[in-house]
Design brief:
This protein has 145 residues and is of the alpha+beta class. The protein has four helices and four strands. It has one domain. The protein is 50% helix and 14% strand.
Length: 145
């Protein structure tokens, strides 16, 4: 079970993860981002029973990531945020599934957004997941030579 003092350490860990995802996105290029995204999409999320047994408060993690994003000097994309959530959940013995959704808007032809689902809980600090149609992951396939 988390205590208030744990919030500092969870936020610090989230800040380190934001830094790592920034390096991934800015230095790793599309193949690295694609690989991280695919791994996240293929996760089977923890159940409500597993979440309850863990004693983890997912909303403490949401607030920690929100604070880390505020402290970070560069913009943090929704996909980065979702990957940070997944890593924080994994560090606490839980699995969250990355979701990527799309929608058509008047301003742009297509918009996309990413968030994490854990059991029946949507973890999205931007609260934008409504209105986006989630895309289901396709199984990994080996490329033919």
């Amino acid at each position: 079970m988390f205590r208030k003092a744990d919030a500092f350490w969870v936020t610090l860990r989230a800040l380190v993860l934001v830094a790592r995802t920034t390096v991934l996105f800015r230095g790793g290029g599309n193949p690295a981002v694609t690989a991280a995204t695919r791994r996240g999409l293929e996760v089977t999320p923890s159940t409500r029973a597993e979440l309850n047994a863990s004693g983890v408060d997912p909303w403490l993690l949401v607030r920690a990531v929100q604070r880390a994003r505020r402290f970070w000097p560069l913009p943090v994309l929704c996909l980065q945020t979702a990957l940070v959530f997944q890593a924080l959940l994994e560090a606490h013995g839980l699995r969250g599934r990355l979701r990527v959704g799309v929608r058509k808007s008047e301003e742009a032809a297509v918009e996309a957004h990413a968030w994490v689902e854990l059991a029946d809980i949507v973890l999205d600090p931007d609260r934008l997941e409504q209105g986006f149609l989630p895309i289901d992951a396709q199984p990994s396939r080996e490329r033919a030579l």
